[in-house]
Write a structure and sequence with these properties.
The protein contains eight helices and twelve strands. The protein is an alpha/beta fold. It has a single domain, classed as SGNH hydrolase (Rossmann fold, 3-Layer(aba) Sandwich), CATH 3.40.50.1110. The strands form three sheets. Strands 3, 4, 5, 6, 9, 10, 11 and 12 form an eight-stranded mixed beta sheet that branches. It has a two-stranded antiparallel ribbon with strand order 1-2. The chain has a two-stranded antiparallel ribbon with strand order 7-8. A hairpin with an 8-residue loop joins strand 1 and strand 2. Helix 2 crosses helix 8, helix 4 runs parallel beside helix 6 and helix 6 crosses helix 7.
Length: about 300
């Protein structure tokens, strides 16, 4: 067995700098090289990325689409009322990748949850993607402090979404590593900010950049080189001009995306909201997913379908 040292470029484009770190990688000749490429997309955020189905949603189910067949999903979603570490979940995919599906609800107004991942998957299929894995870790509400690694390091309960996203990502990557495909993180999708307090809104750009860097570092430890070429898509929050913290959050997220060549701000202000004035309905969730896909992947090369097998 040959022990090689490779140079890993840690994704930090949102901060405007690049860091190179030495990372050992074991290379063997006993295993067939991975030639297939699996496109991986990471989704996180609060309730509009989670995807509510209550509030008299006219489209409570995403229905079926031929594009769904190319996608497998690994999810673990946290309850919006959680204040603890380890967090209380709405539900998960059982620790494995399964065919694209709606997720467990909250036992109340939302019988199920499903978000932009359906529109994302369908648009990716239309653009030529043939092997897609989605990793989703969301929460029903909460300010960006919950996703802040620095906050988690000080108080795990106060930053529990960072710890949960980290653990979900590591578990999902371990599952993918069991397959024959080479992993490529094509996109990081973020929709968070409706619940930001004033201080969180002021830090929205800085915390977004840090989150992307921290996610990329986790991926690189598991799969060196997998974040090269990764793009970031940040969807505009609902009712983005409704109050000062949302105005500030939106401005910060838009500005930081404008400064990074590998990031895109995805407008949603033209899309109507449900009767609660805060959440997107089913039709709008599908459209947001399509817009995220368009921001992340150009009209891609078509190829033979290779669907990743469900891991359970």
């Amino acid at each position: 067995m040959l022990l090689a040292v490779v140079s890993v470029v840690v994704f930090v484009a949102l901060s405007g700098s690049t860091t190179t770190a030495a990372e050992p990688a074991r290379v063997t000749t006993s295993r067939k090289p991975k030639t297939e490429v699996m496109d991986v997309f990471i989704l996180t955020g609060q309730s509009n990325m989670l995807g509510t189905t209550g509030a008299a949603d006219a489209m409570s189910d995403p229905g079926d689409d031929p594009g769904d067949a190319a996608t497998r999903i690994f999810w673990s979603n946290v309850s919006g009322s959680n204040k603890a570490w380890l967090p209380r979940l709405h539900g998960d995919s059982g620790g494995g990748f399964v065919p694209l599906a709606v997720q467990q609800g909250d036992g109340g107004k939302n019988a199920t949850f499903w978000g932009p991942e359906f529109g994302l998957a369908r648009e990716l299929a239309a653009r030529g993607s043939r092997t897609v894995a989605i990793i989703k870790a969301c929460r029903g509400g909460g300010g960006n402090s919950l996703w802040d690694k620095a906050m988690f390091d000080r108080d795990p309960a106060a930053g529990h979404m960072w710890g949960h996203l980290r653990d979900t990502l590591e578990a999902a990557l371990d599952e993918l590593a069991k397959g024959d495909a080479k992993l490529q993180i094509r996109g990081f999708c973020y929709l968070q900010g409706e619940s930001n307090a004033a201080t969180e809104a002021q830090a929205a750009g800085e915390r977004l950049a840090a989150l992307v860097r921290n996610v990329a570092a986790i991926v690189e430890k598991k799969s060196p080189g997998a974040t090269r070429g990764m793009r970031v898509a940040v969807a505009e929050i609902a009712a983005s001009q409704a109050n000062p913290p949302r105005v500030s959050t939106t401005a910060a997220q838009r500005a930081i995306c404008a400064r990074a060549s590998n990031a895109a701000f995805v407008p949603t202000a033209d899309l109507p909201l449900k009767s609660d004035g805060l959440h997107f309905g089913g039709t709008e969730k599908l459209e947001i997913g399509r817009r995220l896909a368009a921001a992340l992947v150009p009209a891609a090369k078509a190829g033979p379908a290779t669907v990743p097998a469900a891991s359970r």
